[in-house]
Amino acid sequence: MLLVLVALGVGLGAAHDRSRDDGRPFPVFEVTSLILRPSTSAFHLTAAVTGAARHSARPRRSILKENAELRKEVARLRAQNAALYEAAQENVRLRAALDLRKSTDFEMVAAEVISRNQSSWFDTAVINRGRRSGIRKGWAVITSGKWLIGQILDADEFSARMVALTDSNSAVGAMVQRSRCNGMLQGQGGDYLTLSYLPKDADVKIGDTIISSGMGQVVPKGLIIGRVVKVVHNKVLGSTTALVRPSIRFDQIEQVFVAKPGQSVTP
Description:
The chain is an alpha+beta fold.
């Protein structure tokens, strides 16, 4: 067997040499390559896929890590943006408060809203100033822009409860700024106020500005309340009623001023 194999090897080597010298392909080599080609291709394909998977897995881990880091950065920037926004809003409120103090000689106490109690009929809030700051029951609660939003309902040493004009228990003297017609402004437990007890021939129109009348010397005179959105003439009772939309929403107030009674808004 050994001699046969040696003889076969010598013969194949000689045949290969003659084919190479003649420039012809060696048939045995061609047949062997044809047989082994599929397995060789499969081997190279497997190696290529494995390498690609190895190279793609590594960037994916990097991408996931980078994504996590970006999420943290986005959260940090959002928190920073919220803090900057709040600081800007506080700056706006402080500027408005300063402008109000410069534009009027009111005796008033600045305060912040610390809690609310809103329902279908009651609309109250608590502020962080009380009797220790001189605040008393009935004093007017206003905002920058000289808008009247309510009155002090009661007060303790360090806090006070205020009631909005829209509360069903609220009632203040008011008048039409243009015609000076006087009436009583009452809350309806909703988004509107009713100016009642006007004479039947009262000069009031849609769009008129309603201000505090100062009657009773409790709420300062001339504070802006809202605008007329509807006028109803009752011929049977001989009276006129106006529906008023407040100039500012009570639930959006954060900072207020409590004004001492017996004052008037200076032009």
